Amino acid sequence: MQEEKAQRKRRKRQRIKERGGLESFGSKPPLSGLSDIAAMNHDDES
């Protein structure tokens, strides 16, 4: 179970990285990136 959560988190980080990560926030709708980060933070809490 724990391993699965770690894999999901890693995949999410990879997706953000592929999209350009923080650098590209200014060039696309802010919410798309911010919601990813919010989801990642939520994962860390649960």
TrEMBL record:
Give the compositionally biased regions (Basic residues).
Answer: 7-16
Tell me the organism's taxonomic lineage: Bacteria, Bacillati, Actinomycetota, Actinomycetes, Bifidobacteriales
Q: Where is this region: Disordered?
A: 1-46
* Protein source organism: Parascardovia denticolens DSM 10105 = JCM 12538
Recorded protein name is: Uncharacterized protein
